[in-house]
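Subject: sequence -> C-alpha cells, single chain

Hey, anyone have a minute? Need the predicted structure for the following. Not urgent.
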Amino acid sequence: MSRAGSRAGRRRGARVRAALLALGLLALGGAQARTVKIVSADTLELRQVDGQELVVISGENVELRVDDDVVRAKRVEFNRTRRTLTLIGAASYRSAKDGEDIRGENLVVELGKEQVSGEDVLISDARLEIRGQEVDRIPGQLRATGGYFTTCARCGRTPNDYAFRAERLIVYPGDRLIAYNAQLLLADIPVLFLPVLVLPLNDKDRQPRLEVGRDAVDGLTVLADLPFSVGGNTLGTTRLRYYENRDPSIGVGVALRSYAPVPFVDRVNLDLLAEPRPVGQTGRDVNLDFSVKGRVPLTLAVRDLDYSLSVTQRDIGRGATDPQRGVTTVEFGANVEYPLFTAALNYVDRFGPAPTGALDRTLKRPEVIVDPKPYTNGPFSADVKVTAGTYTAASNPRSPSATTQGPNVTTSRLEEQHSLAYTVKPWRDADLSLSNTFTGRYYGTGARTVDLNLTGTLTQRWAGSNSVSLTAKYLRIEGTSPFAFDALGGRVLSAPITLNLSTVPARDVSFGVSYTRDLFLSSEQQGNATFSLGVNRRPLSLTASAQVNPDKRTLEDVSFSATLADPDSGKVTVTPAQPATATTPARPATATRSSAWPAPSLSLSASGGYTLATGPRPLTVTAAVTGDVRTNTFSVSATHALREPGLTSVTLNYSLARSQDTVLNALTVSGSETLTPTTGLLSGNHTLRWRGQYELKTSHSLLLQRPDAATSSGNLDFSVGTVGGSRDSWLIKYGGAYDLRRGGFTAPQLSGELNLTRTGQSLAVAATVNTPGLDQKRTELIRAQLSGTAQFGSRFWVSGSALYTRTRSGTYPDDVATDLLQLNPLRVNLGLGRAGERPGAYLTGTLKQDFKWIDGVRQTPGPLTPVIGLTIDRCCWALQAEADLVNRRYRVAVGLPGQTGYPLFELTPTGASIPLIPTLP
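Reply:
Had a minute. Here:
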C-alpha cells in the first residue's frame, strides 16, 4: 500500500474512533440513576448479545467516571440492558464519597444498586486496608469473605504491628467493622481467637456515649447514645435520657440513616428525640427531623423524577409561650423534565397551633410549575412559564382587603410569565430589536398585579465607528398583591425614549450625545442631556462631559480632565525617498515628529468641573518631569477650591534611581510630601533604598500650628532595616509624638526586630525601650519578645516563646512598675529509636508558666512547673504519658487512627479518675 493510502486509512480510522467515542458518550449518558462518562479510551464497540446491548470499551488506559467515582481498567464491558460495568482483568474503582480505593480482578459494578463486587480484592482508605477473596460493596456497607484487615498498612513497617484475619467481614464506612471468627495477629503471629470482633472507625456520630452527672436542678442525669444497625443499609443510634427531678424522668429518641432501603428511595434520615420538659412542667418536648430523597424513572422523561420530603418539629429549649412550640413543618418537592417542558410540584405546610403573628415563610398548598422549553423560529424566540397554587403568607400592609383578614391571608394565585424577542436587519448597517417581558399574577381575591416591559431599539451605523440608536420603552407596573412576599414596590407608568449618538467627527476625536425623555412626565421631571467629548491626539489627551437641561436651558454639570504630554516628541521618524514608478511619481525623504510638544520629559495635567448647585469644583493642576531614566520622576500638584481664596493642598512626589548599569539600581530614593494650608497639616514619607535590600525611612504627620491644649504636634518616626519580605530581616525604629513648639520628642521609643531563618531553625527577637523626652523621664525596657525553633538532625529539637512586658501605674516619680514574664511554652523534644529509622518514641519537656513582679517583688512565688511527656508512636496506634512532677498530676492516654488520644486514667492529689468508670461529683 502507498504512503498516501496509509495516511488515508489512518485518517478514516481516526474518524471511526471519534465517531465511536461520541456514540459511546451518548450511550453511556443514558444510564439510569447514575451518569457514566468516558474520560479516555482507544476503541468502542457496540454489540447485541442475547437481546442485550453491550458497549465494549478498551485501550491501554481506560478511564471512566461514574458520577464522581473513577474507574480504571484496560477493558470494560458496559451492559446497558442490565446496567452493569464489568472490568476485565486487573482494575480499580475509586469511591469519592467514602474515600475508598478498590483493586481486584474482574470487578462488577451495578449502576442501579451502586454495588461493586469482585475476587481477590484489596480495599484501602485513610484508616483501613482490607483484603478479601470475595468482596461486595453496597452503599453504606462492605462485605468480604476470607478477609485480612489492618490499620497499620500505611505505616510502612513489615510486619504490621497488629492485624486481623477473619472468615467474614462487614464494614460500615465511618462507623464500625465487624469480623466473625477472627484471629488477632501481632507482628503477623496469631495470638488470640475471637468469635466476634467489633472495631469502631471513629465517626463521631457513631460512637457510643455515656455521660453521668448531677445537676442542682435536674438531680441525677444520665445520657446514653447506643449505635445499632438494621440490615445492610441502615445505621442508627438509640438515645436514652434520664433526669431525676423531671416529670416524667425518661426521654427516648432514635437517629437513623438508611441508604436505598426500598426501590425509588435513595436516602432516608430520621432524628427523633422526646425529652422530658424542664423541672416544673410535665410532659415531653419533641424534636423531629425526617427527610426522604429519591428518584423515580419515567419512560418519556429526559431524566428521572427526583423528589424530596422533610418533616421538622423543634420544641426542646422553647419556652411554654413560644408560638413555635408544637409546630410541625412539612416540605415536599418533585421535579421532572420532559423533552418539551419541565414541571415541578411543591408543597409547604405547617401543622399545630394557629399562628398568632405574620408567618416567616410562604405556605404552598400546593404549588404547580410548568415551564415549556424556549421556542425559537428564525429571529423570533419565546419563553413562557406558568405557576399556580394556593398560598398562605403574611398579608401585604398596602392591601386593605388583605389586612382585614389578619396578619396572614390565604388565597389562590396564578402567575404567568413570558419573554418574547425579535431581532432583524431592516436595511444595510441597521439593527431592529423588539422585546416584551411580562409577569402577571391573578389572585382568588380578585386582585391582580402586572409587570410589563415593551422595548424597541433601532440602531444605524455608518462609516465604521459612527452610530445612532433610538430606544423606546413602555413600562407598566401596577396592582396590589394580598401577599407581602410578592408585593410590588409601587406603581410605575413610564414611556422613556432614548437617543444615543456616538460619532468620530475628526481623527482622534470622539463625540457622543445621550438624552432620554419620558412621555408620561412633565417638563420639570425630565432628565438631562449628556454630551461627551474625547480627544486623544498628541500631545493632548482630553475627556470632558456636560449635562444640559433642555427644558430649563441650563448647564447642570461639567467635568473635564486634560493632559499635555508626549514622551516621543523628541524622536524623529525618517521615511526614505521612493523613486518614481510607472504609476506613481517620485517621493523625497521626509522627517516627522509625533507632535510639536517642546518638552518630551514634561507633562502637564488639569482636572476640574462645575455644578449648577455648588458652583466650580476644586481645580487640580499637576506638573510632572521624567528623567532620562524612566524611574526618575518628579511631580508637583496643587488643588484650589476656586470658591474660597487660597490653595487647599499642595503635594510633592519624587522617585530617583541612580543606575550603575541597566540591571542594577544601587540607590533608590522616593517620597511624598503633602501640605494642607487650611489645617496646617504637613504629612509625608521618604525612603532611601540600597541595592533593593536595605532601606532608611522616615515618616511624619505634624500640625504646623498645634492647639494649645495638645501636648504634641503629631508623630515623627525614623527607621532603618531590611526590605520587607526578606528571609533574614532586621529593623531599628526611633520616634513617636513630636512637639514643634517645644522642639523635641515628648515620649519617644526605640524599638528593634530581628528575624533569622535557616533550614530547620528560626529565631525572632523584638524589643521596645522608652527613652527620655519632654514628657518622659526614664529610660527603660517596656517590652521584649523572643521566640524560635531549632532542629538538630531528626532526633532533637527545641522551640519556645517568651514575652516580657512592663507597665506603670501612678504619677512620676512615685509610679509603680509591674513586670510580667510569660513562657508560652518552652518545649524540648527528643526522638528515641534505632539509628536510620523513624523514631518510635518521643520524650518531651514543656514549661508553660507566668511570672509577675510588682515594684520588684515577685507575686505568687513558687517553683518551676515543667511537664514531662512520653509518646510511643507506632503510626497506627500511640501511647501518651504526661507527668507534672510539681503539681503531682499524671495522665495516660492511648490513641488509635482517627483519635487524638483516649484517656485511660488521670492521677491527681485529690484522687484517681478513670474515664471508663464514670463517677459522680
